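ARCHIVE CARD
Drawer: 12
Card no.: 0347
Subject: one protein chain, sequence and derived structure
Cross-reference: see card 0346
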Amino acid sequence: MFSRLSRALIASIALLLPAAVLAQAYPEKPIRLIIPFSPGGTNDVLGRIIAQHLSETLGETVVPDNRTGFQGIIGTNLAAKAEPDGYTLVMISSAYTMNPVVYKIPYDTLTALEFVAKIGASFLVLSVGPLLPVNSVKELLDTAQRRPGEIVFTSSGGFQNFAHQLFQSVVKRKLNIVLYKGGYPAMVDVIGGQAHANLAVSVPALPFLRSGQLKGLAVALPKRSTLLPNLPTFDEAGVKGYSAANWYAIAAPAGTPRAIVMKLHNALARYFTSPEMEKKMTAMGAVVDIKTPDEMRKIIPAEIAKWTKVAADANMPRAK
């Protein structure tokens, strides 16, 4: 009897504990960070950096767990269905807002997760092979118009495909966009001369741009990149309104206590705005861009609306 009464009393007191006490006690066991993409990519690299930092900051091990497949949907679904206790986190990226546009997904993109923090983004660089005799976006588009169907833009699924379709819509030209199985082989064929142009993601493209194996024409940023200061923005290059960045964020299952979400957010925000991490992100070819949970709740529906329009304009098929 005493034991049952004691447990009931403890449970009642726990319900009355202020959020600050809950956050102070968290975490009390290892945390799983699901990375829904393959090892070696930007999501994986950033996820492992985050796991190490949170392990050191929170005093409990954060274990990266790659659960790949179906454009990140499999791993994200695992996180969405997990217990909302702060012990399961997930890396999400722009694919999170693109997937519901073209796939049937097993969770509600707007309500399945608590968004902890957006941490940064990689940007796109319109690039051509060194043998193509063009030196500006205008020259590339003029060449593509003079030689219809001959100038091949290489792309891959997911973010890159949406970004290429948006570019085609903004410039109001029908481009010869060829889909590859991955962003890296799409870029390599441009370097090798088998194709001509590519909206390359900054993180993997940076070494090739610096070595001259790729020739950059413009960056998809509001202002020039400190990494590639000689390249104009798309606005400066005459392509007004083109913006596409692959952003990265941390989320938790819906219902995760706000106090835990904010404890994680504050730990990430402090780290990613530190000179050490800004330098590391810059070296990777990415930019720091911290957003709060409340800001992310506004960003997600806006992104979905943006990519829905891109898909409709491009007549992109939706999976049955």
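Annotation on reverse: The chain has two domains: 18-121+247-313, 123-219. The first helix runs from residue 2 to 16.
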